[in-house]
Amino acid sequence: MNRRRRISQQWRRFLLGLCGAIAAVGLAVVGYSLSAMMTADSDPGGVAVPSGRDTAIAPQSSGLAGNCGSHSGGPKDNAIASFYGESAYPWTREIRWNCVYNINDFSGAAGDRFDQAQNAAVKNGGGVIYFPAGTYNFTEDIRLEDGIVIRGEDPPITDAKSDLYSPPSKLTFPKYEPQLSGSGTPNDTAFKKILPASETGNKTIGIVNLDINRGAIALKSDIDETRAENVIIFGDRSNNVAAPDPNIPDLSFQEPWQRYSYRFSTNIGVTARQNILVANNRINDNITDNYEQPGYKLLSRDKKSILTYEDGKKAVFHYGNHYGIVVNRGSKDGGFKGAATPDTEPGLFRKGIVIRDNWVYHTMRVAIHAAGEGLIIQNNQIRDEANKQWWLDPTGKREATGAVTLENRGIDWSGWNVIVDGNDYQVYRHTVGETGYMSVDGEGILIQECCGGTTVNGATITNNSGNAYIGLYKTRDIENVLIENNQINGSNIFVQADTNNAPFAMNDVKIINNEVGGSIIARGSSGGGNNLIRGNIGNGGNIKYSCSTVRVENNRGFEVEPCL
Predict the structure, then answer these.
(1) Closest by CA position to 384, among listed 338, 324, 464
(2) What is the pLDDT of residues 195-227, one digit of tens each?
(3) Which candidate among 58, 259, 265, 502 keeps its CA 20 to 30 Å from the CA of 252?
(4) Where are the beta strands (DSSP E) in 341-484?
(5) 446 touches 409 (CB < 8 A)
(6) CA 303/CA 326 separation, integer angstroms
(7) What is the pTM of this model?
(8) Is the pLDDT assigned to residue 21 strictly greater than 80?
(9) Around Cβ 343, how many Cβ atoms within 10 Å?
């Protein structure tokens, strides 16, 4: 009996111990699950680690802090939500803002540290590579992988349109040091870029609050084949960006050392299939690297003789003679189809494109060049140099003629349902050499049928102020346009559906309550209706219009010409 009782007590103790062990294991599993859930909830980007990915904690010497960020870390807020509000641009939440890899937690030169930080971030689902205040010298291009944002310390003054705007985190790239003899300085010693890692573009990437000197932001890929989306360029300062024209020198008559600033380069260039925000950036406020080229050889205007410019001021390699911001525009192999529609050029009608609150200085080409369905270009400030003079053709190979276009424009837009609102712009034409002619350009806000232009189906152009004209220029059919409350000093509002080849229609165009220093012209000769020019204030200009389709009433300060 006693033996049986002892055995029973032993079994009781064994069973109690087994139950306790099972309970401990269960609590551990529950605790791990709760911890994982809390970690996921704290990630505003909501980017989960894919199944099978290595999530082991790296050794301390790597600078990593588990599978999300590095030890020193940095700011973890959504920089766009902090600036524009929590409800603005919800797609920016896809970035893992809380996974911060501090560049100073890694070793080596700036490029090596960046590579280590990016590799760690990519391995663990993406995140932010943070550059605390300081200067970081890069010798080669930076290439951004999917899910990577590079971010600097928040600037003390947050408005990029302020003259005091200066992000404290500075990325510098090599300066081009020209040698005006022999073969010149090799191009690959400078002209570096921040690029997508993939030729087809990368997803959910960004560049935030960085002062970038001598490095172009070139997140571009083929407009039709791109896989890129969710791109942020915010709070950056960009200076001394250029590229050498690939066709200069022409060794049949030019010296091997000659260089020419490529007109199709850009400070900020982005291509994506949806969701691009280019906001609160400051471009070309401190250009320091222009250089003169005495002895520059070129062809005469008639291309029959070779000239030499002994005065280097006539052949300046200029870091402002190119585009400022280009989004889903630029060049395309084979060119764009004219007067494009979503069927003929779908790449010009991507959605979610916003360009706002930027300060852009440029001396040639277009300050803001963009396309999109529902494109927004808003509250940008564009500055230019008055009394400009230029001697060279855009190719850099011959003297400029009196009919040359240097494409001086403020905003060149295309797409449907576009908003261009609240922009303040300057545009000045060049005097062409010693001819006395002015360059054939000088548009303020423009859409045209060629070169990436589209038909017009929904456009709101309001509350802009500038010194150059608003033009919907020979775009074929024009539908549903409001041009209101703009102040155009000394220039025109010009709306024309007719092209050089045929008349076209114009419907639902309203040109109302603008202050116009020049004339108002509205023509669509093949028909249409519900078009109105009303309540505008002029300064001695004319109103010219198609009488069968346009109603004109209650305008002051204009001479109304007989309709056509």
Answers:
(1) 324
(2) 999 999 999 999 999 999 999 999 999 999 999
(3) 265
(4) 351-356, 359-361, 366-371, 376-378, 381-383, 388-390, 409-414, 418-421, 424-425, 430-432, 443-448, 456-462, 465-466, 470-473, 478-484
(5) yes
(6) 32
(7) 0.88
(8) no
(9) 8
